[in-house]
């Protein structure tokens, strides 16, 4: 079923791809401080930051939370984010509902619960239905960069690589920075390259100024 859906997606949706590199220095330092403060109450993952930033950016770009159905474009108001989870039998997408309205700690808690249910074979119908945009993160496998196939009927999917230490130039000085590559695959029937680029600028703004993830 997964193979059929992905094949149909690639054959029917004209995919195009836009990649950006995100400066993660502030976000990683900020995440470390939050996790230290949380202690045993839970941890914020890099993917939780990505989901929150994507959800907030999607508020500004309704085309990226749309779908192409029966020859027309359908706009979705609720920002339900799909999170791709790799299982032995294949890929499943669990759905974090109203992700733009939830604080980071709640996103972290609900995401963990959804992934655990998926891996234990206990997903409920509402766990896997209704996503309008999907995040696929292979960073934990030390993957630098990849592109993903759109999860139909969505219009876009975000592929997230690992946070890497790389040489960067700051104020004329060579130093080491933490960077993450992100690629959005989008349906050209619904959006275009300039709009996806602006969406990624907004997404990057949230991660490079992580306090915005709290105040929005």
Q: What's the CATH C level?
A: Alpha Beta
From the alpha carbons, calculate the radius of gyration and give it in angstroms.
17 Å
Task: Supply the helix-strand structural class.
Answer: alpha/beta
Main sheet properties: 6 strands, mixed
Strand element count:
8
Looking at CATH, the homologous superfamily is Chloramphenicol acetyltransferase-like domain
Overall number of domains: 1
CATH domain topology: Chloramphenicol Acetyltransferase
Q: What series of H and E elements makes up the topology?
A: HEHHEEEEHEEEHH
In helices, the fraction of residues equals 25-40%
Oligomeric status of the shown chains? Answer: single chain
Question: How would you describe this protein?
Answer:
The protein has 216 residues and is an alpha/beta fold. The protein has one domain: Chloramphenicol acetyltransferase-like domain (Chloramphenicol Acetyltransferase, 2-Layer Sandwich). The chain is built from 6 helices and 8 strands. The chain has helices at residues 2-12, 25-38, 46-60, 104-119, 193-208, 212-215, and strands at residues 15-23, 66-69, 72-75, 81-87, 90-96, 133-137, 156-170, 173-187. The radius of gyration is 17 Å and the shape is globular.
Task: Describe the structure using short key phrases.
Chloramphenicol Acetyltransferase; 6 helices; two-stranded antiparallel ribbon; 31% strand; 6-stranded mixed beta sheet; alpha/beta; 216 residues
